[in-house]
Amino acid sequence: MTLQQLYEQTPPQQRALQFGIAGNDALTGAFPQKRVVHAGLQGSLVSPRESQQIWQDLMAQAPTGKEVQTAYIHIPFCKTKCLYCGFFQNGMDQSVEDEYIRCLVQELRQAAKARRLRDSLIHAVFIGGGTPTSLSADNAARLLGAVRDCLPLANDYELTLEGRVHDLEPEKIDTWLAYGVNRISLGVQSFDTKVRRAVGRLDDRDTVLERLAALKAYGQCVVVIDLMYGLPGQTMDVWMEDVRTFAESGIDGADLYQLNVFEGSALSQAIRQGSLPPAATTAQQALMFQAAKTYLDQRAYRRLNICHWSRSQRERSLYNTLARSGAAMFPFGCGAGGHVDGYETMLHRAITPYELFVREGKKPFMALLRQSPFQSFIDEIQYQLEQGCLDIGALAAKEPRLGELNWLYQRWQDQGLVRYNGVLYELTDAGQFWQVNVTQTTLECMQYLLTGQTGAALQGIAAQDSPKSAAMAEAMKKMKASGEGPSMESMKHMAEAMKHMSQEELQAVMQRMKG
Question: Pfam families, from UniProt (predicted)?
Fold first, then answer.
C-alpha cells in the first residue's frame, strides 16, 4: 500500500491530524492542533536483570575513534514552581541538596573509570533541571569540579548551566566561571513584569535587565535566554516588546518557545477559575511566531534551529545541535536521559532510588532500551527538520523505500508548509511553526514504509484551544469591551460557555465573582 493509499484509508479526524487540512490558511490552520514528537520505532525494553551487565560491558569497550559526544547532568530542584512548567520535581532543601550532589559526584567518578568514557571526548555538557543555578555556591563548586575532573572535555567544549535570573548573585557567578562554565541559559520567558508575576516569576523587568547586563559584563560566557509566546496577558504588542527588548539587550541568543496549556495543569486551572486571563490560542501563537521571526530575520540574526536565534559568533548552541543529531549522550543525575552505542537510557526520577543505586555502585536505571535498527534514519529526519529542511533524495540513496516521502512533501508543498528548491524541501514560515507536526508525521510515514506498521501518536488538545476556554474567553472579551458591565449579548455567551463547565469549575467562577 502506498502512502497515498494509506492517506485515503485513514479516518478523517486522524487524517487531518497527521496529514493536515487542505484549503486552510497554512500558518494558522494547517493542522487541527499541535502534536509532540514521539519517534516511535523505539526499540525494545531491556530486562532489569540484564541492564546493569549490558551497561558495564558497553562502558568497558574502547570508543570507536574520537566521535563528537555530549553529557547531560540533571539537577531536580526548584525554589518555586512556575504555573506553566511541566518539569518540576522537588522543592529546595539544603540537606537534601547536599546529599544529592554527593551522590551525583560519586556517579560521575564511577563513570570516569570506564574506558568508553575515559578514552573518548565530550564536546558539550548541559546541566539542566529543575533549576541548576539554585544550587549553593559550595555545591556548584563540588559538581563543576567533578565535571572538570571526571569528563574528558574537548579543547573547544561547551559547558551550559541552566537556570533563572533570580539566582544571578556575584558569589555564584564567580564560582560558575571559575570552574569552567562558558554558557549560561536563563528562563526569562517574558520581560513584562505583569506577565512574569502572573505565571510565578519573581523579578520585575528592571531587575531582569540589570542582572542580565551584569552577567554579560563579565565577558567570560555566552548568555542566552528563553522567551515564551502565548502567555496569559501577553498580547501581540507585549510579545513584540519582549522580542525588541531581547534584540536591544546584547544577549547572545534566545530560544522562542510556544506556550502549551494542558488540561489539568495549574495554569489551566488558574485560567478557568478566572485568576488569570486566557492564554493565546494556537492560531494567535502562529501569528506571534511569524512576527518575531520576521523581526529577527530583518536584523540578520543567525538561525541555529527552528526555535533558536543567535546574534553573536560566540553562541553555538552546540549541545542542542548535537542532541538532535543522535550524538552519544551520557546521562548523570536523577531523571536524566541519554543514549550511547545503540541504547536509550532513563535514570530514576525519584531521588531515593537514584541515590540507593549510586551508593551500591550501579547505574541508576529506571529503564534501558535497545534502539530501533532504523535509529539512524530517525535521527537524520529529526535533525534535518530541526534545521528547517529535509533532503529526501539523500535518504532515498541510503534506503530507496524512503523515496516515497516525496508524495507526502509534495502534498505539503501544495498546502504551503514546504517548498522544493531543486535539491531538498525547505520549511516555510508555516512549516516552521508546525514543525513538530511535520516531524511526527514524517516519522510515522517512515515507520510505515520500512515496517508496514501504521499508527499515530495522538495526544490531547492544548487547553487554550478547547471549546469551553474559547467560549469563555470570547464572552469575557465582549463584556470587557462594553465598559458598562454585562450586556444581554455577553450574558448569553457566558451562559453558553458555562454549559460546558464542570460543577467544580462553576463553583470556582461563582467564588471569583463574589470577590
Answer: Radical_SAM
